[in-house]
User: Fold this.
Amino acid sequence: MSSPLHTAIAGLCAGEARARDAAAAEIYAAGRAPAERVVETWCSDAELSGLLSGPKPEVTVGLAVQRETFSKIRAAHSVSRLAEVPSDQDAEEFELHFANGVSLDILTSRAPGGEGAIARYLGKFGEGVQQVEFRCTNVDRAAEILKERFGVAAVYPETRAGTDGTRINFFLVVAPGGGKVLIELYERK
Assistant:
């Protein structure tokens, strides 16, 4: 039996734009909700809130899918450009943007069954929301604040190169109500 999220992922491949838009909105809402509750707490800190662009941050939901699904979604949306992912990261991705600020990163592994983060996620959980990305004006400073004031350690000891020349770091946190959510903070150069 298929879950609502799996149905929505399939909907991203639909021939009709309205069905793809509805599927994207559903995936975005499902991914953003738990991350938003975490970041809402972080935004109680004025400095961190400013780094995350205040009460209305720019958010992208990262959806990990198998290579076949990746190709189908890419074809349905006529996406020709793949993002430039650093060679040390076993991932391919492209962005999709929809009405009402809905933004998705569609991610897959370059080497299915490999050792990269996306391959490990797909092997453990299957297709789904792998990360939620928040634009940040200074990832290094945000990481310091999260560690010092919230006790949240970054996944990587230092900010690293990300897709299309961004600087990134990740934070694996417990979401209110249970479960974990992987939050990526990214900064454009």
User: Anything to note?
Assistant: Residues 4-187 form a domain with the 2,3-Dihydroxybiphenyl 1,2-Dioxygenase; domain 1 fold (CATH 3.10.180.10).
